[in-house]
Structures are given as structure tokens and as C-alpha cells.
Amino acid sequence: MTNKSFILKSMGCKSNQFEGSLIIEHLIKDGFVQVKKLTEAEYFILNSCSVTHKSDTEALYLLRNAKHTNPDIKTVITGCTAQLEKDNLLKLDYVDYVFGNDDKFNISKFLLNDIKTEVTDIMTLGLFNYQSLDDVSKTRFSLKIQDGCDNRCAYCVIPFARGKSRSADTEFIIEQINKASDKGFKEVVFTGIHIGQWGIEKHQSLIDLLREVEAKTKIERYRLGSLNPLEITNDLLDLLQQSDKFCPHFHLSLQSACNKTLKSMNRFYKVEDYLEQIEDIVTRFDKPFLGSDIIAGFVGETDEDFAITVENLKKSKLSKIHTFPYSIRKGTQAEKMEGHLPDSVKHERAEIIKKISVEKYELFLNQNLNTVHEVLIEKHPDKHSGMLKGMTKNYLNVLIDDIENQEDYFNTLHKVKLVQINKDKFIGEFV
Q1: What is the pTM of this model?
Q2: What's the pLDDT at 183?
Q3: Are 417 and 372 in contact, with CB atoms under 8 Å apart?
């Protein structure tokens, strides 16, 4: 076993993936060596997710498996599960270190000093923890601009794992984007727990930030994370519609397509307004990608309620739907509600929605067939085919074959015609 060697795995959302990359950078800077096999590692570090019960279960499995594979390995858990379950985790014989969400960026220091646990009270934090990645190996530059959430959706434990909404200053964001441009990045992806709440504590809004991005950065493309439907205003759409930088890739978190269920969830919008919003977006942008989330089998969801959700999803112009069965989260309002459904019903409903999603995505792919798009070519070829790979502004994966001198195309923007559908990707040709 190599001294100070580690393996890190990040679960869950893009913010967590971003933070996992930061932890790796910090560890390497402090002399740790990243390895690929558990048998070669001194530390197994898990950056956990707690959005569902399944996520927590998977986290514990990964920690146990690491110990089973290498009894000498030291297991480290950070992330949302660590933040919420510190006391319980410390009792487990297969967990050696526990660090909270705001403490994860100091993991290398903690390990070097053999500090076993550090979990800051996340709800007391009022300031954004400024972090930026130096990694230039990826094609898109990820930038975390916000953390925490001030909403209290009945099913969600994440506000208790992430704390109050906290935002990066505009100046920091602009500086980081321009530094990324100078390093050759063509696209920035804004991440956060609830980026639609950016600036709320400073009486600013996301549109204020994007106006600055439009005016003061050299980046050629930017992409937004998930947004609450209430945050999609006409002013925001007007700005995005006029932008040459914005990638028309929307993820509008719906959670249910039944008004009765939405009310129970503490989601304060109507399905009718959501569907109108999608129609508006489709008229404003050329073939925008429209993704959403649906919780199947929420507490008290009747057969009639679910039928309404199915009907509304079918007639919607969504491109893809991410769905998962409702999961009880300790300490949430929904935990105490009456009318919890059997797991079998929740999973059955999730499967129905997954089938609708497959149909929606197939339709979206066909709508894009034989159309021309601006594609950002990745810095590395596709692992399986060896072909050039890239992504359109509207979130379509493209492979391009029979190209000599592939390296000349890495990290460049090109017009590409999508000529063939290959499963969930396109085969493209340079125009």
C-alpha cells in the first residue's frame, strides 16, 4: 500500500461532483496520490448524497465494501449523509472519519493531522465558501455559484444538509469565468444547490448575474443547472433568448404534475402555469432541451392524482423526465404525513413515468435528426468507439467518425449536421 494514497467517489448532484473534484485537487496539492484500486489505497473517501434513502443505503454499502476489499483501508465519509448522520456514522466499525459539507475542503489537512471528525453546524453559516477548480483536463468549466436552499419542500432534507442559501459575489464569478476563458475553456456550467436563489440574501437575482456574464466575460457558452419554475420569468427568458452565449438546456424541477400533490409538497405553482411556461420556451428557442424531475408515489398520492400526473406529462413538451420513487427523509414534513404508499406502488408508478420519458426523448432525438448544431468537441475521444465526441448547445451527445488529426479538433466549436441516431447519441458530420 502506497503511503497517503486515496480513492475518491462522489455521489449525487453536479455540485457534489464539483466538490469532489476540488477535494481531489486539494489532496494532490498536499502530497496525496490518487490510485485506481481499493487494494492500493490508504484512504477511501466517499463524498455522499442523501437525497433519497437509496442514496444513504448505497453510501453505507460502498464504505463496507471498501473495508471488506481492503481491511487496512481507512474510510472517510463527507457530503450530505455525513452532515445529517454524523453521530450514527461514528458508531459504525467500518467508518473511520466523518466530515461535514462545509468541512470537506479541508479533508487533506484533517487526514494529515489524524482528525477523526469535523462537522460544522451548517445552519449557522451565512457566507459562501469560495472555491474554484484548477483542473484543465475537462472540456467544460464547472463553477459553483451558490449553496444551500431556503425552500422547505415537504419531502426534502437537503436544506438541512446544505444550510441557508449563500451566493458567490458577482466579481468572483466574472473573474473565474474570464480566467477559464484564458485557459482555453469555451463553456462554463453554473452549479449550486438552488442556483435560482443566487443573490437572494443580497437582494439580487440570477438575471442580475447573467447580465454581468453577458457584458463582462469572454466565455463563448454558458449552461444553467436546475431551476424552480417560479424562477423562470419573462425578463429572464428575454435575456436568454437574446443571448449568443446561453445554451438552451433547461431543467425545470416539476416534482408532480398534479396540483393537489404539488400543494402537499409545498411547491407553490400550478401545473397549468408550468405547461404554459414550457410552451413559451419552445416558441422562443430552437429545439430547446427541457428536462424535469418527478417524484413517484408521494404521500397521499391517489390513483386519480397519479393519473392526472401521467396525462399532463404525456401532453407536455418535455424532452426527458428523471423520476424516482418517493423516499422518506428523516426530519421532513412528509415523514409525519398520513397516507404513505407501499414501495411496490411507488416503484410501479416510477416505471410508468420512465416509459413516458423514453418516448419523449426518442421524439426529441428525431426532431433534431438532420439538423445543424454548434458542437463543442471534447478534449478526449470517445472511450468505446475512438470517435470524436462533443455536445450541442441543447444537450445532445454527438460522435464524429473518420477524422484525421483528431487532436486539432479537441476543445473547439464546429457546425455539425446530425445525420444518424445511435441509441441515445448522434452520428454527426462537419458542415
Answers
A1: 0.93
A2: 96
A3: yes
